[in-house]
Amino acid sequence: MTAVVTAAQQNARARSAIAGRAQALALAAVGWGALAFGGAYPWAYWPLSMMMFVAGGLGIATRAGTVTLSDRRLFAAFALPGAAIAIQLIPLPLAWLRVVSPNVAGILERVDFAYGAGLTRFHSLSIDWSATLVSLVLFAALIVLMMGLARTMALRPPRPLVEVLTVVGVSLALIGIVQKPLYAGRLLGFWMPEATGSPFGPFVNKNHFAGWMLMALPLSLGLLWGGLERAMREVRCGWRHKVLWLSSAEANRLILLATGALIMSLSLVLTMSRSGISALALSIVLMGIVIARGLNGRSRQAVGAVYLVVLLGAAIAWVGVDVLATRFANTNWNEFNDRRGAWLDALGVVRAFPLTGTGLNTYATVARFYQRHDLSSFYGEAHNDYLQVLAEGGALIAIPSMICAIALGWEILRRMRHDLPGSSWWLGRAAVTAIVAIGLQESGEFSLQMPGNAALFAVVCALAIHPPRETVSDERPGGRSVERPRLRVVASNVFAGSR
Q: Within 10 Å of residue 286's Cβ, how many Cβ atoms?
């Protein structure tokens, strides 16, 4: 019996070690994606995709927990958009192509020499199959990372992962804060961007930096309040004990977390990104709701509310209320800060390619022929990722993507109902806050088109859907074993905030 238990323990330790390596590699991928200027260049996104594949593959190889029907449904839902993207790459006879996508011929005559010269009898639905292939590989890597990383959290708690992610976030925030007054045309002091923009930190576009912080900041806040809620359960009643607790190592860790979150929010506001600041305000409100449901006692809830107000207020005060007011007041809201023209042009592409789109990752090519507004500038993106998916994918990709989003939302709600008190409760809801915040920004930006941001989004989704902790047996003297119970479905009222 002892030998059997020992073998089981060794197997559990081996799987836990693999899960640890997968999480470490996932963090390395997120850090690389951000520091490599958002992963926007081939030399950056090919290594990034390889790291995501390996990290996700290691997570899947852990075989943590059991594969449920819900897991299979979620994987099938994510496979649908991937299959649709693959269909865009299939070479079709030109006669079929003209039937399925009548307007594609006019574009191909201008951008494809072989087609224009009559040297080919087949062509894919995508006007640029190589660009669409890049998107397919990156999409597959993101799905593997998300599913694999979620499984590792059944063996290793996600708290250490988010702690390291917070360190990465604070480092990026400090880079952005220091670089802002010193910027002389080179990112990180050495890289000359290939495209002009409004850089911040290692990102060419300040809105993309804001998008990264919108996903990382709620996770840090969830970690902070989860730690505080856990610590308060162990502190005896009375102000004397609470004051004494402030000198403990745990209190110092939480103070560092609170300071780090403040630095991250300051960097986000310093970008002066209107979409980022608006989404930040929304995420602060959502985190306030989470704190109200997760903390017992009016005093603790009041402390949480005060901290969130200070978090946002201090960042705004540092930048200057008048500066921010001027920034928002000078916005042409009737034109949604010049986005309306870009959106109308994207709708024009949607009307021209309603069924199969132009091919994922090809909007910059087709926009040269369909831009009708604000001709003084070229809009290589729709500045609304939902519209851009419609333009590049048509109904072929838009419908599977909608099914995928619904399946993800359903799975998140199912996992939230099954959560028990602990850090996972807080991190799961913080991840949902991050998803909502970046979803709002995507209505006017394209942050998730940056592979580095997409890698962080996959990590956030993994935190939102990660399964309960697996049962682990520990050998005790005398041949007895003690089980640490698996966190499973026990109380539906947890979702309502009961503690």
A: 18
